[in-house]
Amino acid sequence: xxxxxxxxxxxxxxxxxxxxxxxxxxxxxxxxxxxxxxxxxxxxxxxxxxxxxxxxxxxxxxxxxxxxxxxxxxxxxxxxxxxxxxxxxxxxxxxxxxxxxxxxxxxxxxxxxxxxxxxxxxxxxxxxxxxxxxxxxxxxxxxxxxxxxxxxxxxxxxxxxxxxxxxxxxxxxxxxxxxxxxxxxxxxxxxxxxxxxxxxxxxxxxxxxxxxxxxxxxxxxxxxxxxxxxxxxxxxxxxxxxxxx
Length: 245
Prior knowledge:
- It is a single chain.
- By secondary structure, the protein is α+β, with helices and mostly antiparallel strands.
- It folds into two domains: 14-88, Ubiquitin-like (UB roll), CATH 3.10.20; 111-238, Alpha-Beta Plaits (2-Layer Sandwich), CATH 3.30.70.20.
- The protein is 24% helix and 16% strand.
- The chain contains six helices and ten strands, in the order E-E-H-E-E-E-H-H-E-E-H-E-E-H-E-H.
- The two termini are 27 Å apart.
């Protein structure tokens, strides 16, 4: 029997670029966000989470790239030879601060009564970006709170539409219970075909969506103010194991 043909190996080219005046090397299949993190450069982000596919929706990871007339999202922009990147400037700080303010104004994020108070990524970003008040009008729309699940609760008033729950349920758990419905300000995450979470036929009650949620939108039932701590560190390991199967 003849030997099986070997699949050709695709070589990934290494490129050199500059991030904040630091010369770095990177594989051309890496994103700016990955390379910056590998070299100790902090770029704020909210929808990004190691182990999940990129969404590029929050726009907090915007960076300046020499030669580009617009700001680029670091999570979805791949590196290129000779690229010159600026991750921190007065312009970027102004944009990020405004984005965080808009997130707070779009829905109800009253930290003092939230179970994720002190353990919330949006709250941490507000501190990092210097947001001590919101300069735009609040929408004050009231969204539904779904407590139909035996273990968990979803409060759409605190959702920032990062789609982490959608991606972890699809890419890691494989259930695809979560999805996104609607457009614009009326957009929200749903379970199955907009059924109550507790009536879902596909949910495995694994809790991965709760652990990756950056705010108090998805929480365990029975938690009081400030008690809801989340640990999404399992994702890179699970992603690696799935890739080796």
